[in-house]
Amino acid sequence: MKVAIMGAGLSGLACGIILEQNGIHPTIVENRRDVDDRFVNGEIFLNALSAPINDSIAYFAENYNIYLQPVGNIKELIIYSENEKASIKGDLGFNVIRGRRNDSLCHQMKKQLKSKIIYNAEHTYEELLKEYTHIVLATGDGAYSERLGNYKRDLTVSLKGAIVEGRFDPYTTIAWLDNTFAPMGYSYLIPMSNTEANIVIAYPDYPQNNQLDINLLFERFFQRVQDNLQQTLKIVDDFQITNYIIGSCDKPRIGNTFFVGNCFGSIMPFLGFGQHTAILSGVYAAYDLCGKGTYEELIKTLDHSYKNSLALRRSMEKLNNQKFDVLVKSLNGSVGKILLDYNKIDYLKIIGNLLKPIISVTGNDQTHNNLP
Ligand SMILES: Cc1cc2nc3c(=O)[nH]c(=O)nc-3n(C[C@H](O)[C@H](O)[C@H](O)COP(=O)(O)OP(=O)(O)OC[C@H]3O[C@@H](n4cnc5c(N)ncnc54)[C@H](O)[C@@H]3O)c2cc1C
From ligand 1's centre to the CA of 140, what distance in Å? Predict the structure, then answer.
């Protein structure tokens, strides 16, 4: 068996680590100069979104000997809407770094791998097919899956983010549900240390959003962050992503090609979370290659979560700012506490049920945003 992994990101590296643990040494091709050789950003593992697994970091260590070190754990999640604020406290998850930093998640995973990674690789999938018996497609987007006619694109998203300097509580992550600067989307602040944080707006590229000026929206958001934090922040780096594809594969495997990570559709449409599922999909593909399971079977639960998450996103997109206020107000009370009990509940169901009466308060609202 000769295995090639295309893409040394979360899913590709996870696949490589598990293959090596089982005596298979893959060839890994990466088209950048190094792993995670891109803009720096903060990302989070949110325990409630990986239920029934309530600690991704411990889960990967104990079950798969994949060791990840977060930059911090999340003890509080603050959610702002236009006029309301909710605070949810508990062991909520972890902050991690991605991009060009030695402590980034992919650099940590690379150190656990012995197989050589071929950087600046220009191999096409078709070339790899000629040389290898099995290919794991882990390029972080749906482009190849789409080209192979194996992908359904559900939406694309525009994102703009910045690294800001200021004073931050490293244990508190903040989210904003406000159409004024993230129409039909969301915005967040992830602390990377006491003095550095990543702020981001993300919204879907629907026709009604096409005329929007992302820089103007980001300026509004930046002002709101500073108002809510009551301090002046300094932008030290920024990034922008257009056309970030969210979709999923029809078939997780075609012949001897495995689709993992975003190539499979591991990114959850609701809030764009995908780290946990990307790593798991890489592990599952490796299990199949090692004769320890069947990829199509193992991946089924992730596919199910994707569909639920998409339904939830569509519900959220219907909310205007008044309805976000109602939602955030209810999150501040007992509903927030129920959400923390992630081991016993299906969070998607709970939030879905919560949204139903809010959506129906004034009927099906098609005027989504409160843009002036
Ligand atoms: C701004 C932003 C914020 C996010 N925040 C969160 C978050 O807070 N929590 C969360 O869970 N998820 C988050 N995500 C999603 C998460 O980053 C992804 O789900 C995850 O990285 C997907 O893993 P992957 O292995 O599919 O792709 P990646 O980790 O992106 O890896 C793909 C790799 O393939 C390489 N590659 C691409 N094309 C080729 C090619 N032709 N040949 C060889 N190599 C190639 C790339 O260079 C890259 O190294 C966020 C995403 C973005 C963009």
Answer: 5
Q: Where are the domains of the chain?
A: 3-360
Separation of first and last alpha carbons in the chain: 60
Residue bearing tokens 């820089």: 215
- The SS3 assignment for 280 reads helix
Q: Is the CB of 8 under 6 A from ligand 1?
A: yes
Ligand 1 probe mutation, 160, 267, 279, most atoms within 8 A of CB: 267
CA-based R_g, the chain, Å: 20
Q: According to the CATH classification, is domain 3-360 in 3.50.50.60?
A: yes
At a CB cut-off of 8 Å and minimum separation 6, what does 156 contact?
A: 204, 205, 242, 243, 244, 245, 246
Going residue by residue through the chain, which has 372 residues, state the pLDDT in tens, using 9 for 90 and above.
999 999 999 999 999 999 999 999 999 999 999 999 999 999 999 988 887 888 999 999 999 999 999 999 999 999 999 999 999 999 999 999 999 999 999 999 999 999 999 999 999 999 999 999 999 999 999 888 999 999 999 999 999 999 999 999 999 999 999 999 999 999 999 999 999 999 999 999 999 898 999 999 999 999 999 999 999 999 999 999 998 999 999 999 999 999 999 999 988 888 889 999 999 999 999 999 999 999 999 999 887 788 888 888 998 999 999 999 999 998 886 655 655 555 445 566 666 666 666 655 433 333 333 222
The residue among 82, 27, 70, 2 whose CA lies nearest residue 370 is: 82
The Cα–Cα gap between 100 and 252 comes to: 30
